[in-house]
Design brief:
This protein has helices spanning 10-21, 26-38, 56-63, 76-85, 123-133, 147-150, 196-205, 220-225, and strands at residues 46-50, 68-73, 91-95, 108-114, 134-145, 158-160, 166-169, 178-184, 186-193, 208-214, 238-245. It contains eight helices and eleven strands. The protein is of the alpha/beta class. The protein has one domain (6-146, 195-245): 3-Layer(aba) Sandwich (Rossmann fold). It has a seven-stranded mixed sheet with strand order 3-2-1-4-5-11-10, sandwiched between helices. The structure holds S-adenosylmethionine. S-adenosylmethionine binds next to strand 2. The site of S-adenosylmethionine has 19 residues, from strand 2.
């Protein structure tokens, strides 16, 4: 299936890199700490990372004791940074779409994925392949944009008062799953919205037991330093899932 490869769009890539270089971005403040808190002891583990991007976490996983890390991604731009900046003999980067995961061979103790799953239409197919690639009792830990965000394709996300203060988030078409045409650095960024129940039931149907969900929100300390993140009191930006393979399918 042809996937949109938006990270190879120059304008998008430049905007994304600038965002990630900001110290107080939502990845650094919320997504990364929550994901790392879900990780098991990585000593000796074989890890597969879906949508590995620039590979910044592959180096972290190696430094935390992983035996080997395989990162797959669809974007040449992201993989070029990964291969230049986060190169290690124990790390392998493969240009591959998650939707082609059926072509990947190997056996892994842990599959991780950070903020890449929303670009995938066939989540069930990916999850079934994750089951195939994991050892029994292996874990699948991933983060995604929260469904309360992905339901709304970006137009009028907030209801504001006459002073422009956000009163509440607009939850639109939550029950309508599927493609959303969003605006993020450029127009027409394609993502896929799924209900929380669809995400969880796809995992259960593919032989996983759910161990933990997380929806990071800012602490009072973070809000004092970065009041712009008060929005997250209304709704979380990210959903994180920790699941364990309990059955072969
Ligand atoms: C928001 S970035 C996250 C990168 C990295 N996981 C991180 O947290 O720093 C999303 C990544 O998913 C990749 N991606 C998007 N669609 C993909 C697909 N169909 N298959 C594999 N990777 C994909 C993008 O190229 C991009 O590198």
């Amino acid at each position: 299936m042809a996937q949109q490869n938006i990270y190879d769009n120059g304008t998008f890539f430049e905007g994304y890199q600038k965002l990630r270089q900001r110290e107080a971005n939502a990845n650094n403040l919320f997504e990364i700490p929550e994901r790392f808190a879900l990780l098991p002891d990585l000593t000796g583990l074989r890890i597969l990372d879906l949508g590995c991007g620039t590979g910044e976490h592959e180096k972290d996983y190696i430094n935390m004791g992983a035996k080997e890390v395989v990162g797959i991604d669809i974007s040449d731009n992201m993989l070029e940074v990964a291969r230049t900046k986060n190169n290690d003999s124990r790390i392998t980067y493969i240009k591959m779409s998650m939707e082609d995961l059926g072509k990947l061979e190997g056996e892994f103790d842990l599959v991780v994925s950070a903020l890449a799953i929303n670009y995938i239409e066939d989540f069930e197919g990916v999850v079934r392949n994750v089951n195939r690639l994991l050892v029994m009792n292996g874990e699948f830990i991933f983060s995604q944009e929260h469904p309360v965000n992905t339901c709304n394709s970006g137009k009028e996300r907030w209801t504001k008062d006459e002073n422009g203060v956000k009163i509440h988030a607009n939850l639109t078409n939550y029950a309508v799953e599927g493609e959303r045409d969003t605006v993020w650095f450029v127009d027409n960024v394609k993502i896929y919205h799924r209900k929380i129940s669809t995400v969880i039931n796809s995992l259960v149907d593919a032989g996983f037991a759910i161990e933990k969900l997380a929806e990071p929100v800012p602490s009072e300390e973070i809000l004092e330093k970065y009041p712009e993140y008060y929005d997250l009191k209304h709704k979380p930006d990210f959903l994180l899932v920790k699941a364990r393979k309990t059955n072969n399918i």
